[in-house]
Amino acid sequence: MLGLLIGGVGLCFGGRVRIRGRAIEFYGGGTKWFVHRLPHGQFTLALTLGHTILGQTDASLDISRKHEAVHVAQYERWGPFMLPAYFLSSAFMWLTGRRFYRDNPFEREAYDVDGGEHDP
Fold first, then answer.
1. pLDDT tops 90 at residue 119
2. Per the domain annotation, does 54 fall within a domain?
3. For the chain, which terminus, N or C, has the lower number of CB atoms within 10 Å?
């Protein structure tokens, strides 16, 4: 629901929406503005919240589609526990001296599928 809310607000500020596979993709306008203002958002192509993918641009969604599809599948497996598990995993990585984003097992799985195509 959070992704739909953010995407819906993004639409009100010039964003666009489309359905691809099992996901609803929002991009441009207010959605791009939102993603860009996240920590490291200028480097973020897209992010997934459930079956909703928020991207900066049409092209960024095309580039990251395989990666984000893995996150959609993770949300299907983990349900409402996905977001807390993701953040706890990032915190654990950071506390143990690893990279909080790239070493997160959820991200490692997604990068393994897309071959690291947009590895930061």
1. no
2. yes
3. N
The total number of structural domains in the chain stands at 1
Would 60 be classed as within a structural domain? yes
pLDDT in tens, 1-51: 889 999 999 989 999 999 998 999 999 999 999 999 998 888 999 999 999
Q: Which helix (H) or strand (E) segment is 48 a member of?
A: strand 46-49
- Quick check: is 120 in a domain? no
- pTM of the model as a whole: 0.88
Q: Is residue 119 in some structural domain?
A: no
Give the H/E segment covering residue 24: strand 23-27
